[in-house]
Amino acid sequence: MPVRRLLSVAFVAAIAAPAAAQVSTSALEPVAEPPAVSSQSGRQTGVVTYDRDDGQQVVIRSYEPRSAASAQYRIDFAALDADSDGFVDRAEAKAHPTLAAEFNAIDSNRDGRLSREELAGWLR
Q1: Which of 19, 39, 68, 99 would staple 73 via disulfide (CB 3.0–4.6 Å)?
Q2: What does the pLDDT look like over 46-63, one tens digit per residue?
Q3: Phi and psi at residue 76, in whole multiples of 5°?
């Protein structure tokens, strides 16, 4: 094994070992009052606990979102597609405030317009 490759492997191992030693997935002590959970959260999907150098623990929890089957997240594609070109552009999206606010996240191909496929979860 060349010296350069051997040093790279040793460097990665030296960095990875302390980082791995700081992560713990052991059970936490019960608390008198659980942390607040957003009303928008569904069931918990994961938890990771990090032990900081100062002795404190940082707990990161992930939750699946609750169903977004509200009027806020439902649209009538034909009604928004004012020019009937088969897409909802930024100007047309302004008619639906939630859609306009989340336009960039939904526009997966970054072409500045939303197709029926990109809006599949939003359509009535």
Answers
A1: 68
A2: 788 888 889 888 888 877
A3: -100, 105
